[in-house]
Structure formats: structure tokens, C-alpha cells
Write a structure and sequence with these properties.
By secondary structure, the protein is mainly beta. It has 4 helices and 21 strands.
């Protein structure tokens, strides 16, 4: 009922009330007529007194005082106030209903936009510290004007203010792995084991639509490690400032969320790629007519190849006074075009630089592992009679370190391809002897690594750098079985031959012992990934690694092989 109609009805009601008040004595007179009298059917309303018997004693009717004009005005004013109050209540109810309808419409629009973003062919920009599964892109419950919005779905759980400016989002990743080695390189009792690989409850959020934060602890392995703890200020799409602990913007597979990795463990290039570090980063994304370009520039404490800053002697504290510079560019040149066969192409390159000097107790040099997480190379170390690290005979970092990494991926329909190369130039030194007989062996070593990975979703689902979303999720009693993906990868890491070469005239002056350390590792891995739903995955991997060198008398280290499996829940 409109307000105009309410006012019109109220006016008629007021005049009707006035007439009723004026005529109110008549009914009283009729009620006072003696019992047994009958009012003629067609008599006027005031004829009751005239039909009384003549002999009946005439009773004096009690006079009822008629209301004065002032009293009538007061009554009318009272009625008008009541009517105005009712009108205000009705208007408020209509306004609240309209607001609720607008909120519901906005929520439906947000959910529809999220669905379009989820089903888009173009993969997410690599390396951006964006959300793994944006919770605000899930279907929203209807929110009133005064209540916060609550979200729940495959991307996680969250709540936010009615205007969306402030949000808290909850995610999680839990990986339960089985490792089963088929060789004799691992001692009895540890060749077959179950382990909790990751146990990460994740909290992230946004304040005032600008400031993002992420807190990601990991409780796996019987210890607590803070994987991510940072804040990012999105002042402009071209200017985002991030501070705290997060992944250095370098390796392509390393920058992919762990829940989206296609194999249980990363390929050999990630042995050289830096992992999480503490520092400051400036980044941004530029959109042009056909695609996007992402840039990232960071200043970090610096970490050795393949590790995070929590691996330092004092976790999350720099182990030297020098800092690392890291820069990366990544483009999706056709992501905005109608060329479906090219929208999933991404290409980029990264570089890092540091100048640092290690010591016998803090060499600043790495240890390299196979994909099955077993060491196959480490630089020479020495100890004294007390068992402490000795400068005489220990290889240390001594000068510049430069890393470069061209990288690319390609996704089209159910097919995916990822490739990257990492090359490093590292200045090292090793001192042999003491006093005037001391000889310092120096060199610039250049290890490098590469990998090529291919995937195919045999169930016809869409391949992506991000999260695979099955078109027909698994459900008991339903026809869907989720998505099944086949994956294959070859990767290789090769050491510089100078690593194992003696200085002229000095025996065993190498930087790593060629009789115990392999100079090259090549790994072949095949896998099957079963995505029951967007949140539940079962993975089976089989890996064979072959080595050059690493055994006495110039022989090759024995091959290793392993069967890995994983049960994963992530949201």
C-alpha cells in the first residue's frame, strides 16, 4: 500500500469518526426504551420514544453531554498522530524490504561473476600472492542492512562487512603422504613411511578494501613453522607494496600454490630456486589491449638455493649482512583475446643478485636433493679434532651470486604444459693448508637445471595453472566421478665440471668430492591425479632418478626409484 493511498484512507476515517461522535446520543436513547416496546420496522431511528405506551410512566432520559468543538479537535489530533505513527512504521518496513532485496540481488550478481571467473579459460597470473581460492567469489547468503555477510564454499569460509570493505577468510591445506622406496639407498626402517607433509590452517583478510594480510603456519613434522606472514597494500593495480615473509618472486613451479602442484614434490630446478624469505616487494599488473604484464621487484634478506629463511641457524633472521635483489616479469599476451588456443599462454623471466662471503660454520652454499627428497650433492666441508667446522678444507661462498630463470606455461582445453630453466653463477673459495703453505682455490661455478612437464585431463575438464575444478564432482549415488589427470615430467640438474677439478699441482683441491657427490641427476616422473572434488585429491607418483658420478673410481651412483602417494584436503 502506497503512502498516498494511506493518507487518502486516513482522511475518510477521520470524517467518519467525527460523524459517529456527533450522533452517539441516539443509540443511547434507543437503548433506554422500556422492555417490550417495538420499534416499527420502517420508523426513523429516533422514533423509539414516540411509540411508548401513553400510560407508562415517562422516565427521564439521562442526558449525555455532547463533546465540545475543542474536545473533537483533540480527538481528531490524537487520531492523526496514531495514523502518522502507523505510516512511519509501514514506510520503514518497505524501506527495509527494499534494502534486503538489493542486498540479495548484489549477492546473486557477485556469485554469477565468480562463476564466470572460475570457468574462464585463462589461467591465473603466476606468482601473484593472490588468494588460492577467493572466498568472496563463493555464493553469498542474503545479508540485511545491519548484518555482516557470511560466505562458505569450496574456496573456504569467510565473513565480511556489508559493504565488503573488511573481510576475514579462512583456508586450509592438509597433505598426508606415503613414501615407498624401491632401492637400497635408504637404510632399512625408513624406506617405507607415512608422514604428515603439510598441516596448514590459513587466515587472510582485507581492511578498507586496500590492505591485505596472510598468516600461514605449518604444524607438520612435529614442529611449527611460519610459512607466510605478510601485509600488502594495494594502492593501485600498478603499485602494490608487500612486506613480511613470503615466496621470493622467482621460480615458476615454486610460485604455484602447493595445492595446485601437479606432482607431490617439485622438480629439480627448485633446488636452485629460492623459497620463502623476509623482505619488501613492489609489484603491479599492467593491462594492455590483448593481455596483461606482471612485474615484481623485491629486496630480501637472501637465502641459499632451494631453502627458506626458517632454515637459517636462527630461523627467520638473516644469516649475513648482505641482501638479495630479485626481479621478475611475467606476461599473458593473449589472455584478453578471442583466440582460445592462445589465451592460456604465459611467458616470463626472473633474476636475482647478491654479493656475500660465507664462513666455515655458515658457508651460504646449498645442498641439492632429488625429487624423492634425498641428498645427492653437497660442497666439501672439514672439521677439526673437536668435530667443529674448520676453515681449512671447507668450501664457502665468496663473492657474487647471480640467478636467471626464463619460464613459460601453456594451457588449452584439457592439455597443460610447463617449462622452466634456472642458471646460476656462484663465486666460491676453498682454503687448503695453513700459514705460508696455504693455498686458496677460487672459482666461479655455474650449476643449472631445467624441467618440462605435461598434463592431460582425460575426463575433459579444463586444464589451468590454478585450481582444477571438476565439471562432475564425485558424489555417492550421483553419476559424477570428479576429474582424472595424467602427468609426466623430466627434469635435470647439472653441476659445473670445475666443481670437481683440482687446482693445478694440488691433490684433492676440488670444491666437492667426485667420489661421493654426483655431478648430474636426471629424473623421470609419471603421475595420476584424481580430483574427487575441488577440495579433495588423491595423487599417485612414480619417480626414477639416474646419476652421473658420485661413486668411487669414477663410477656412477646407483639409480633411485620411489613410489609416492598423497591424500589432500584443501579449501
Amino acid at each position: 500500500m502506497s503512502i498516498a493511498y494511506a493518507r487518502h484512507s486516513a482522511g475518510g476515517y477521520v470524517w467518519f469518526a467525527m460523524m459517529a461522535i456527533v450522533l452517539s446520543p441516539a443509540p443511547s436513547a434507543r437503548a433506554a426504551a422500556p422492555e417490550g416496546t417495538e420499534t416499527p420496522r420502517n420508523a426513523p431511528p429516533d422514533a423509539a420514544s414516540s411509540v411508548a405506551p401513553a400510560k407508562a410512566p415517562r422516565k427521564k432520559l439521562s442526558a449525555q453531554k455532547k463533546p465540545t468543538i475543542e474536545e473533537l479537535e483533540q480527538r481528531i489530533e490524537l487520531l492523526e498522530r496514531k495514523l502518522e505513527a502507523q505510516q512511519e512504521t509501514s514506510a520503514a518496513a518497505l524501506q527495509s524490504a527494499a534494502a534486503a532485496q538489493s542486498a540479495a540481488t548484489a549477492a546473486q550478481s557477485s556469485a554469477a561473476a565468480a562463476q564466470q571467473a572460475t570457468t574462464a579459460v585463462a589461467p591465473a597470473s603466476a606468482g601473484a600472492p593472490a588468494q588460492q581460492h577467493p572466498v568472496t567469489e563463493q555464493g553469498a547468503a542474503t545479508a540485511t542492512v545491519s548484518k555482516p555477510q557470511i560466505f562458505a564454499g569450496p574456496g573456504g569460509f569467510s565473513f565480511q562487512s556489508p559493504d565488503g570493505a573488511n573481510q576475514i577468510r579462512f583456508h586450509g591445506e592438509f597433505d598426508f603422504d606415503g613414501r615407498f622406496y624401491n632401492d637400497n639407498l635408504t637404510p632399512d626402517g625408513s624406506r617405507s613411511t607415512w608422514l604428515l607433509r603439510r598441516a596448514r590452517p590459513i587466515v587472510e583478510g582485507t581492511f578498507d578494501k586496500i590492505f591485505d594480510f596472510r598468516f600461514n603456519p605449518d604444524f607438520a613434522g612435529g614442529k611449527t613453522v611460519i610459512q607466510d606472514a605478510f601485509v600488502a597494500a594495494r594502492f593501485n593495480p600498478l603499485f602494490v607494496v608487500t612486506a613480511g615473509k613470503f615466496k621470493e618472486p622467482f621460480g615458476l613451479e615454486r610460485l604455484q600454490y602447493s595445492t595446485n602442484n601437479r606432482f607431490i614434490e617439485l622438480g629439480l630446478p627448485s633446488d636452485i630456486v629460492p623459497n620463502r624469505d623476509l623482505g619488501l616487494q613492489v609489484s603491479g599488473s599492467y593491462g594492455f589491449s590483448t593481455g596483461t604484464l606482471l612485474y615484481q621487484i623485491g629486496w630480501f634478506n637472501g637465502v641459499s638455493d632451494g631453502v627458506s629463511t626458517d632454515a637459517n641457524a636462527t630461523p627467520d633472521v638473516d644469516n649475513n649482512d648482505k641482501k638479495d635483489w630479485v626481479a621478475r616479469l611475467f606476461a599473458q599476451p593473449f589472455v584478453k583475446t578471442d583466440l582460445a588456443a592462445l589465451r592460456g599462454l604465459g611467458v616470463g623471466a626472473a633474476v636475482s643478485y647478491a654479493n656475500q662471503v660465507g664462513s666455515a660454520s655458515n658457508t651460504l652454499l646449498p645442498t641439492y636433493k632429488t625429487e624423492t627428497q634425498r641428498n645427492f650433492f653437497t660442497y666439501a666441508t672439514a672439521t677439526n679434532a673437536a668435530g667443529a667446522a674448520a676453515a681449512n678444507g671447507t668450501t664457502i661462498a665468496n663473492g657474487e651470486r647471480l640467478r636467471i630463470s626464463p619460464q613459460a606455461y601453456y594451457y588449452y582445453e584439457s592439455f597443460g604444459l610447463l617449462s622452466e630453466y634456472v642458471g646460476e653463477s656462484q663465486d666460491v673459495s676453498r682454503t687448503l693448508g695453513s700459514g705460508s703453505a696455504a693455498v686458496k682455490h677460487r672459482a666461479r661455478l655455474k650449476p643449472d637445471s631445467w624441467q618440462l612437464m605435461a598434463t592431460y585431463l582425460v575426463t575433459g575438464d579444463d586444464a589451468t595453472f590454478g585450481t582444477v575444478v571438476p565439471k562432475r564432482p564425485f558424489a555417492v549415488g550421483e553419476p559424477g566421478w570428479g576429474a582424472v589427470e595424467l602427468a609426466a615430467r623430466i627434469s635435470q640438474l647439472k653441476l659445473d665440471p670445475a666443481t670437481f677439478t683440482d687446482t693445478k699441482g694440488v691433490v684433492d683441491s676440488w670444491f666437492a668430492d667426485p667420489s661421493t657427490q654426483a655431478n648430474k641427476a636426471t629424473a623421470w616422473t609419471v603421475g595420476v591425479n584424481w580430483y574427487l572434488t575441488q577440495n579433495v585429491e588423491w595423487v599417485l607418483d612414480y619417480t626414477v632418478t639416474r646419476f652421473d658420478g658420485g661413486a668411487a673410481d669414477g663410477k656412477d651412483r646407483a639409480d633411485e626409484s620411489a613410489f609416492f602417494t598423497r591424500f589432500q584436503v584443501a579449501f
